[in-house]
Design goal:
The protein has 31 helices and five strands. Helix 3 packs antiparallel against helix 5, helix 8 crosses helix 11 and helix 14 packs antiparallel against helix 15. The protein is elongated and about 115 Å long.
Length: 761
């Protein structure tokens, strides 16, 4: 800081600039509020059709978001400028006060240019001829003290000025186009975040073996504290650099290092999560230096790092374990994934896996370690997609030129085909893990859940309830691909060979149960009932009627997928009965159509479940009965459902936050029918051990179907019991036959050409 620049700088002009920024922030807040309430609100209520509706709504949403970010950035800039101006004026006052005190002691402060200054002692001509030899009594020590005091003030002023400039550049560079959402109350908080990032980067600059547990604890504490701070994240990532990030984590996480020290192991586990979140936040910046950082990281992927730790892992092996946590830039994840899968295709095959083999003991994953040692980098990458829905939807997007639906292999995304049909997956469990379990396929399911639902696969029930509808034409496009693949002739074998995917497939189908019912509602591909099943989002999924039947018939074969989609179907049907109360002829007709479409879906699922149980267990009727008993238990899922805003979060058995079906509802509010279901529970199916196997299997199948028929009958009864008009119409139109026929009349055993046959070894 130049002395004269501080003393004579025109802070009035800076004050005027601050006033302009404050005014701009105020105006932008008004615009942002207006854009959200009016522009966005009207766009989402507009009854548009065609691709333009999807494009326009998406454009409007992004524009509204930009108004919000513009206000945030203007407000932050105004606060930082105002805070810095106040500090500099304070330092100017301190300098002038010091100079004034120096004058009284006959000390002169002179600016010598280039930021330098000197303090000299003032002398009078008569002092040289004074017989006493006395002067003013000021010593060189006084001059030095004044010099040091002024220098300290200038240093503080320089720090205030330079850090303000740095954080302002960082904020502006966060978004290459548009505006940054970085929000800070003052210069100090922004500057402190940057300073802490620099301090933490110094720990990573060390040899990881020289870093103490205390330093690791400090590092973890600060990474956790600043996990959502954009300036901290970018400064930290840039200061550390891609390769040092990888080598440091590998050195800390190396099982041969952390395993000897339980406390170090605990710190290493938290470091994996904290680094992943921090680096993910850093990638959201659009600055040139972060774009360069991302390119370097991707380039490091296939190469070994040249270290002694963790079996000298590749860049992919380390980074994929870090990215299991965090919100990452969509383009970075897609670029990383493209390169990773291209390389994986070169090294993947039936022989020895490059990733999972006895020579590779570089376990770098601490989360769910028993079933997933983290040696396969594709697994960690898919976990990243599972937490980043937009990136996942892009990664599995339909190829350009796909028609209204997916009906041929060439219309399926190449990444999706490779991961579901071509890749050789290896189990990466410890001796204590589930024998044969393939964590990578489970992670693929997580990635596809996020790609199709628009939610992170482990989103909480509260987040889903608050978030509402997240499906788009893009998510529906991925869902069409999934339905095509698993509804194909290979579908039963694929599901059988990939049991870790079953629950995810059921959850995906449950998330599109309204579109499934819509596809079942027509006569062939004609006259589908949009009145009863209106689209909840633009660009709804088109599976075709045959495609829907095939897909459901495959899902019904597995207990887990059957359970998830059946619960979603039942809840959706009940919500439709709520949405169409029996107070008009039109509503009663809609209720009839909702009941029959729901019954048809249930019939496909239940028929498939019975046939697969009998095929799998053959003459072991006891096991077949138990399997059907477990499948009949799906209704208990309703007991923990959370509903609101036109959506429901249904917990699966043994539920954690990661085991929720995100199911659409026919209306934003729910009535008695849905609330009754949420409170219901039933006992498991009957297990009669006294009859011979064939008779017992038949009886159990009958009981299983009877439960399904009774549930549909209860729904039907609840709708008409208090409405004589609805009861009369239902009786005249033979609703009994319609619902029963829809439930029992479709399935591969009734019509060999409809649905897929059960899987046979």
């Amino acid at each position: 800081m130049d002395l004269d620049a501080l003393r004579y700088g025109n802070f009035h002009q800076l004050g005027e600039a601050i006033t302009d920024w404050q005014t701009m922030a105020k105006n932008l807040k008004t615009l942002a509020t207006d854009a959200d309430k009016n522009l966005k609100g009207k766009a989402h209520k507009a009854n548009w059709a065609g691709k333009n509706a999807t494009v326009t709504r998406d454009f409007v949403d992004k524009t509204v978001h930009e108004f919000t970010d513009a206000h945030t950035q203007a407000d932050t800039v105004a606060k930082i400028l105002s805070d810095t101006r106040g500090e500099l004026i304070g330092y100017r006052t301190q300098v002038n006060d010091a100079i004034e005190r120096g004058v009284k002691k006959n000390l002169t402060v002179l600016n010598t240019g280039d930021g330098a200054f000197v303090v000299t002692r003032t002398t009078r001509p008569d002092w040289a001829s004074d017989p006493s030899g006395e002067d003013d009594g000021t010593s060189q020590a006084d001059a030095n003290a004044l010099r040091d005091e002024i220098q300290r003030i200038l240093d503080k002023a320089a720090e205030s000025d330079s850090t303000a400039a740095k954080v302002l550049r960082l904020i502006v560079d966060q978004a290459k186009y548009g505006f940054s959402g970085a929000d800070y109350e003052d210069r100090d908080s922004a500057a402190k975040a940057v300073a802490e990032a620099d301090a933490m980067a110094k720990i990573l600059a060390k040899n990881p073996h020289d870093v103490t547990n205390t330093e690791l604890a400090t590092l973890n504490a600060n990474l956790a504290k600043y996990k959502n701070d954009p300036l901290f994240a970018e400064e930290f990532a840039e200061r550390v650099g891609p390769k040092k990030l990888l080598t440091f984590y590998a050195g800390i996480a190396d099982p041969y290092q952390a395993g000897y020290d339980p406390e170090r192991g605990k710190q290493a586990k938290q470091l994996q999560k904290n680094l992943g979140i921090t680096i993910g936040r850093a990638t959201l910046s659009d600055s040139d230096r972060m774009e360069s950082w991302e390119k370097q990281m991707i380039k490091l992927g296939p190469d070994q790092l040249g270290i002694d730790d963790a079996n000298n892992p590749t860049g992919y092996a380390v980074m994929s374990n870090l990215m299991r946590f965090g919100d990452y830039d969509d383009q970075f994840l897609n670029d990383y994934g493209d390169k990773l899968l291209a390389y994986d295709k070169q090294v993947n095959g039936e022989g020895i896996s490059l990733w999972v083999n006895n020579a590779n003991q570089g376990d770098l994953n601490y989360w769910g370690y028993k079933d997933d040692r983290g040696r396969d980098p594709v697994t960690g990458f898919l976990e990243a997609l599972g937490h980043n829905p937009d990136a996942s939807s892009q990664f599995f997007a339909q190829p350009d030129g796909t028609g209204d639906t997916v009906d041929k292999s060439s219309e399926v995304n190449e990444h999706l085909k490779y991961l579901t049909k071509e890749r050789v997956w290896m189990s990466d469990v410890t001796l204590e893990g589930k024998d044969g379990y393939v964590a990578g396929r489970d992670s693929l399911g997580h990635a596809l859940e996020s790609a199709t639902t628009g939610y992170a696969y482990d989103a909480s029930a509260d987040a889903i309830k608050a978030g509402g509808e997240h499906r788009t034409a893009a998510t529906a496009g991925v869902m069409e691909e999934v339905a095509y693949l698993y509804g194909s002739e290979d579908g039963p074998k694929m599901l059988h060979d990939q049991p870790e995917l079953a629950d995810s497939l059921g959850k995906m189908a449950g998330a599109y149960i309204d579109d499934i019912d819509y596809n079942l509602s027509g006569v062939g591909e004609y006259e589908m009932d949009e009145g009863t099943f209106p689209p909840k989002y633009q660009g709804r999924a088109n599976f075709t009627q045959d495609g829907t039947i095939n897909f459901l018939s495959v899902l019904g074969q597995d207990e887990n997928s059957h359970r998830a989609v059946t619960a979603a179907q039942h809840l959706y049907t009940l919500s439709a009965l709520d949405a169409y109360p029996p107070n008009s002829d039109a509503n009663i007709e809609h209720a009839h159509d909702a009941l029959t479409a729901g019954a048809q879906a249930r019939g496909i699922l239940d028929n498939s479940r019975v046939e697969q149980a009998e095929t799998t267990y053959k003459e072991d009727a006891d096991e077949a009965n138990k399997s059907l008993g477990r499948s009949a238990d799906w209704i208990k899922l309703g007991a923990g459902a959370v509903v609101g805003g036109g959506i429901a979060a249904i917990p699966l058995p043994g539920s954690t936050a990661a085991a929720l079906v995100v199911a659409p509802l026919a209306a934003d509010t729910v009535g008695e029918a849905v609330n009754t279901f949420i409170g219901q529970e039933i006992d498991k199916g009957v297990d009669d051990a006294e009859q011979d196997p064939a008779e017992q299997a038949q009886l159990t199948s009958s009981e299983f179907y009877k439960k399904g028929e009774n549930q549909l009958g209860a729904d039907y009864h609840a709708y008409v019991k208090d409405s004589p008009k609805a009861a009369e119409i239902a009786n005249n139109q033979n609703w009994n036959d319609d619902v029963k026929g829809a439930y029992l009349g479709i399935g591969s055993h009734e019509n060999d050409y409809r649905g897929r046959a059960p899987y046979k070894d």
